[in-house]
Write a structure and sequence with these properties.
Elements: E1 2-5, E2 13-14, E3 18-25, E4 30-32, E5 35-37, E6 43-47, E7 52-55, E8 61-67, H1 79-82, E9 89-92, H2 97-104, H3 111-125, H4 132-148, H5 155-162, H6 169-177, H7 181-199, H8 204-210, H9 216-227, H10 231-243, H11 246-257, H12 264-271, H13 275-286, H14 290-307, H15 312-318, H16 324-335, H17 339-347
Antiparallel strand pairs: 1-8, 2-7, 3-6, 3-8, 4-5, 4-7, 6-9
């Protein structure tokens, strides 16, 4: 099923099917499984059944494709799109001409086509610089973790589920994705713990037992070790965040003023809080800085203007740069392309 929609601010969209999200426009962050992402531009994002997505502002327009046909997921290669290891599962839209052609059609062909196109693109991007055999081992262990995390197996027991004598799997993961098997298991368990705490009314004790913990005190201690707060505090915090308009207000201000106002003090004054409080809230909520948010909005605006045919010199002046070459240097620093190269890549 294909849909185009404008998401509600801070609404939790739980996924009942594997889904593709193509963000057509918007400002702000998206949140997936308690992690905020700012770099969603020019990407096709793949989310697995059971995950959730949340949008921080009311400016987003999103194309969504839900994959109801489970036959698509018989292929092991499909896992590389949906099973997230260190970040969102995605492919670069601008690098994938076949993706652009598929999504530009009013009438879509088989859903299998976009899956096959995306898998080929993912292998071409090769984000972890591994060969296909190595990828299969990496995603084998991720699949075992997803299935067995409630059983609290040791690393050796997890490895035995996919191989009896391959002792190099842990090294492979550490070398290619920068995480150990143990860390992947901890991350998976924590996300699922957080979901039950945040989105159910179940008592903490019940959640601990459901997640395979034999000792509730240990569950509380382990949760605080990984998050800095207790399960009860986390539940209270999530409830507050769903009603908090801070992010939406901040991104609207940055959108309105980023071409002329770059200082932290300006946005703090507009929000009626101190610079220290603004910095702290942005760090806690978004794991970034106000300056970085402003720079990303400048990049987003510059891309829109470039694609609308504006001259580089005029864009530089509009965005507050004294010289066109200063803007070009800034643009390349954050996109790895000059404005001219970006246009050539987009139009190729």
């Amino acid at each position: 099923m294909v849909s185009k929609f404008t998401p509600e601010v801070n609404k939790i969209y739980f996924l009942e099917t594997h889904s593709l999200f193509h963000i057509l426009k918007g400002k702000g962050t998206i949140e997936v499984d308690f992690k905020n992402y700012l770099n969603w531009d020019d990407k096709l994002i793949f989310l697995e059944k059971g995950q959730y997505i949340k949008f921080s502002s009311d400016s987003f327009v999103v194309r969504r494709i839900d994959f109801d046909n489970q036959v698509l997921f018989k292929s092991q290669d499909v896992r590389i799109l949906f099973k997230h290891l260190v970040s969102l599962g995605y492919i670069d839209y601008l690098d994938c001409k076949d993706c652009q052609e598929y999504l530009s059609n009013t009438i879509f062909s088989s859903q299998k086509d976009i899956i096959d196109i995306s898998v080929n693109q993912w292998y071409w991007q090769n984000p972890f610089k591994a060969d296909k055999k190595e990828y299969q081992i990496i995603f084998d262990i991720k699949e075992v973790i997803d299935q067995e995390f409630k059983n609290h197996l040791s690393v050796e027991e997890l490895i035995k589920k996919i191989s009896k004598n391959n002792k190099n799997i842990n090294y492979l993961l550490k070398n290619k994705i920068g995480l150990t098997i143990k860390k992947l298991e901890v991350n998976k368990r924590l996300i699922e713990d957080q979901k039950l705490i945040a989105f159910t009314d179940n008592p903490i004790k019940q959640i601990a037992y459901e997640q395979g913990y034999k000792d509730v005190a240990y569950f509380n201690k382990n949760f605080k070790k990984n998050t800095g707060i207790t399960p009860s505090e986390f539940r209270d915090q999530i409830g507050f965040q769903l009603d908090d308009q801070f992010e939406n207000d901040l991104f609207q201000m940055i959108h309105d003023y980023h071409t002329s106002q770059k200082s932290l003090s300006f946005y703090a004054d507009k929000l009626h809080i101190t610079e220290k409080t603004l910095n702290k809230k942005v760090r806690q909520k978004l794991n970034t800085s106000v300056g970085q948010l402003i720079r990303q909005e400048i990049i987003r605006t510059s891309k829109e203007l470039l694609l609308n045919g504006e001259k580089i010199k005029n864009i530089a002046f509009y965005l507050g740069f004294e010289e066109a070459n200063h803007f070009s240097t800034f643009f390349k620093h954050y996109t790895q392309l000059t404005p001219t190269q970006f246009l050539k890549k987009y139009n190729s």
